[in-house]
Design goal:
- The two termini are 28 Å apart.
- This protein has 192 residues and is an all-alpha fold.
- The protein has helices at residues 2-23, 26-30, 40-60, 65-68, 71-75, 88-97, 100-119, 132-141, 150-158, 162-187.
- The chain is built from 10 helices and no strands.
- The longest helix is centred in the last third of the chain and has 26 residues, at 162-187.
- Helix 3 (40-60) runs parallel beside helix 7 (100-119), helix 3 (40-60) runs antiparallel to helix 10 and helix 8 (132-141) packs antiparallel against helix 9.
- The chain has one domain (2-187): dinb family like domain (Four Helix Bundle (Hemerythrin (Met), subunit A), Up-down Bundle), CATH 1.20.120.
- The radius of gyration is 16 Å and the shape is globular.
- Helices cover 69% and strands 0% of the residues.
Length: 192
């Protein structure tokens, strides 16, 4: 199963995400085609943030690239969290101001780091969970989500086993957002 996850992850980072940046204009990446939708850029940023947080902080126990390598500043955005429960006005602001070339670079960096994590995954971790103190230190201490949802995120992520982070955030979560991206592109008349 790990080999299938690695293939899926490689496809996301080596084909799907680069294809989006190559095929879509800046305007298409930034657009919110309906008032209730996120932009494609927001979806890419969000799925990368989640992967960066979960694979680094809960699987590999390494720092997030977002903070340790200065990506927040490079992306030119005010948000250090992962975007879950973000107000629509903030989604709009992020969509319009994020540095798209640096977003593509962040995608490459996150993909490379997560590939190393997947290649070195220790099967002895299967079935284990991270202690609540660690979860709280990351989620609340590193401010990876809006304050209003901290306790819910601690409870949800705290119930996951380490291999569930790998499945959920290398396969399921990105697939959800890639599907949303396809709809957003289609609403703009773009074929992916």
């Amino acid at each position: 199963m790990l080999d299938a996850i690695k293939r899926n992850h490689a496809n996301l980072h080596q084909r799907t995400l680069p294809n989006l940046f190559a095929k879509l204009s800046d305007a298409q990446l930034r657009a919110r085609p309906r008032p209730e939708t996120n932009s494609i850029a927001w979806n890419i940023w969000h799925l990368l943030r989640i992967e960066d947080i979960t694979l680094n902080r809960f699987v590999a126990l390494t720092p997030q690239l977002y903070t340790s390598a200065g990506w927040q500043e490079r992306l030119g955005i005010a948000y250090g969290d992962m975007g879950t429960a973000m107000a629509i006005g903030d989604v709009d602001a992020l969509s319009q101001t994020i540095n798209l070339s640096e977003l593509a670079n962040y995608a490459t960096a996150v993909g490379a780091q997560s590939t190393l994590t997947l290649q070195g995954f220790d099967m002895a971790l299967v079935g284990q969970k991270r202690p609540e103190a660690h979860m709280r230190a990351v989620i609340a201490g590193e401010k990876v989500c809006a304050p209003a949802i901290v306790e819910g995120v601690i409870k949800y992520w705290g119930n996951l086993t380490i291999e569930q982070y790998v499945v959920d955030y290398c396969v399921l979560h990105p697939s959800l957002h890639v599907g949303e991206i396809g709809v957003l592109a289609g609403l703009q008349g773009a074929a992916l």
